[in-house]
Amino acid sequence: MTWRKNPLHFLKQFSKLSAATTAGAITLLSIYVYDKRSSKAGLCASWTNVSEEIPYPKIKWNHNWDRRDPKSLVKPSKNGVVEKDENNNIKNDILDVTPTATRNILLIRHGQYNLNGLTDTDRYLTTLGRTQADLTGSRLKELDLPYTKLISSTMTRALETADIIHKHLPDLPREKNDMLREGAPIPPEPPVGHWKPENYQFYTDGQRIEAAFRHYIHRAPADQTEDSFEIIVCHANVIRYFVCRALQFPPDGWLRLSLAHASITWLTVRPSGRVSLKCYGDSGYMEPKKISYS
Amino acid sequence: MTWRKNPLHFLKQFSKLSAATTAGAITLLSIYVYDKRSSKAGLCASWTNVSEEIPYPKIKWNHNWDRRDPKSLVKPSKNGVVEKDENNNIKNDILDVTPTATRNILLIRHGQYNLNGLTDTDRYLTTLGRTQADLTGSRLKELDLPYTKLISSTMTRALETADIIHKHLPDLPREKNDMLREGAPIPPEPPVGHWKPENYQFYTDGQRIEAAFRHYIHRAPADQTEDSFEIIVCHANVIRYFVCRALQFPPDGWLRLSLAHASITWLTVRPSGRVSLKCYGDSGYMEPKKISYS
């Protein structure tokens, strides 16, 4: 110990250290308080004059949510900065990967099915479910959009629904995908008492449904010249999760949405990556007594 | 200065102070790091195994969003704790204010209107707008729900739409409210280039539309014995904002939703305060060529 030899010198040194520590503590405290305040800053109902703040954090729209923002597709990419050439024009390599078409994705829930079935095969459409699917096929035909593809989950009730829809649109190419099967996407907030999947279901289904989202929901590629209209026949949980994810709403809020059998939910993804919900759970083309939810 | 008189004693005291400061700094640092980690913790697609975190903070459902949680209505209220009597039963004063009925709120956008009108009076429904309103009135009649009230904004296009709907439901009591008029609820995220209201519009409209939300969207009072079905005829921005707020989705995300003229959007508010969206922008009862958006 040197302080016994020269207590004054040691004290000076110690004092410096202590002052630094104190300054550090004050700095940390300031950062902490600042952070606390900025993370607490919620949304306001108007710019300045609010009687009470809406308890919601300000969350920016992620323009590169599908990792297809043109700037992120060219190398070397400069985070978020549009690269320009010497004449201040957007560089050709960015223009080459910039989408021009809009993707329309029509999500259809399967029709009502036999809830008593223990296996997927036994969970076939009820008579009402077949009627609902037929009405939806008819409505899609009536909408007369330039459909590009009819995609469906591989579960019996979704395949049957897609089969019935396909009768109305017989020329439409079909695609089936296991990733679209029903499951437990993410523990819902608020939690519900009556629906408690096992942890392993969220573990496996959640990852798979997120994979399906990344596969099907994204902006058009640059080489797509015409707007596209895809029909995806799948399941309530999958559709509700897709809608929350696509709109950048909290994904665990999916169970706040309720979805009628065979209803139409329409998402558009613009070339800019902006997403819009045109309708959710549209079943207005069915007689009221034909509408069912579970 | 006492340290010249007794440097050793002073050094001991100083050392204690310094140690305390250092300990304090470490504590602050720990809190800061912990907070950083917890505020950064986003939602996961599944419980544990994610290839990539979904960049969304975990936000709890606010059960007392309408300030009508029974526990918050009795005095003295113990924050969130259900008060029980000596026999471990929920206290009568809480049961007395506990709702039992569900409120159904059917939000109808007005029909297409004359966009060239400079004043509200000149922004009357077009022929198509009148047809849309008529089809919606007819659909509401067909749904045959025990409607309790027909409410509307006081703007010409909303009043005209409500008048046409009322012809289909002539016995329904009517109510008009200025708070439901169209406006700029909150600066949208992501921002849009083509729609730039003046700051004072968000300042005045935002507060008013939030006031309308608090007035019309809430759980049933305890003395409501039957489920209610209210029809509210108003405007696209108001409805989109109401939907985001009611579902506890980010309110500034309202412009991610698109809304067809005279379409039906159906919210239910359960006695527990849980909110569910049954459909959004349903216009399936209209021929496709009758559907319009702006």
UniProtKB/TrEMBL annotation, chains A, B:
It catalyses: O-phospho-L-seryl-[protein] + H2O = L-seryl-[protein] + phosphate; O-phospho-L-threonyl-[protein] + H2O = L-threonyl-[protein] + phosphate. Keywords: Hydrolase, Membrane, Mitochondrion, Mitochondrion outer membrane. InterPro entries: His_Pase_superF_clade-1 (IPR013078), His_PPase_superfam (IPR029033), Mito_Ser/Thr_phosphatase (IPR051021). It holds the Pfam family His_Phos_1. It is found in: Mitochondrion outer membrane. Its EC number is 3.1.3.16. The keyword Manganese does not apply. One of its GO terms (cellular component) is mitochondrial outer membrane. GO terms for molecular function: protein serine/threonine phosphatase activity. The keyword Hydrolase applies. GO terms for biological process: positive regulation of mitochondrial fission. Belongs to the phosphoglycerate mutase family. BPG-dependent PGAM subfamily. PANTHER family: PHOSPHOGLYCERATE MUTASE-RELATED, SERINE_THREONINE-PROTEIN PHOSPHATASE PGAM5, MITOCHONDRIAL. This is Serine/threonine-protein phosphatase PGAM5, mitochondrial.
